[in-house]
Amino acid sequence: MRKIIILLPLLSWMVMTGCSIHRVDIQQGNLITREMVDQLKPGMDKRQVQLILGTPLLRDPFHHDRWDYYYSLKRKNTPLERYAFTVYFMEGRLTHTSGTVHPDGH
């Protein structure tokens, strides 16, 4: 009986506050924005690309001329957002890119 008396105020408080739990946005990977991609130019070396985009999340040991950047964002009550962006090199120089970038950069 004593436990019920102790727990009653806690339960009442939880009911009155709606048991709301603060959930934070969860971001993973490299956020690549349109502004970053616009700075890329064919012929740039890998160091220049890395200065703009950051270190790639994946460097495939079988494809040295391809860097993959992934980004995901999970916000409260919304579906998971996923973005993948790939840069391609030939002989250490940027040739082209593909993929999607985060629309607003936030």
Secondary structure layout:
Blueprint: H1 2-17, E1 26-29, H2 34-39, H3 46-53, E2 58-59, E3 66-74, E4 81-90, E5 93-99
Antiparallel strand pairs: 1-3, 2-3, 3-4, 4-5
SS elements, strand count: 5
Task: Briefly note the CATH topology name.
Answer: Beta-lactamase Inhibitory Protein, Chain:B, domain 1
Instruction: Give the low-pLDDT segments.
Output: none
Beta-strand residue fraction = 25-35%
Helix-strand category: alpha+beta
Write a structural description.
With about 110 residues, the protein is an alpha+beta fold. Helices cover about 30% and strands about 30% of the residues. The model has no long low-confidence stretch (mean pLDDT about 85).
Sum up the structure in keywords:
5 strands; Beta-lactamase Inhibitory Protein, Chain:B, domain 1; 3 helices; alpha+beta; 106 residues
Summarize the structure.
By secondary structure, this protein is α+β, with helices and mostly antiparallel strands. Helix content is 28%, strand content 30%.
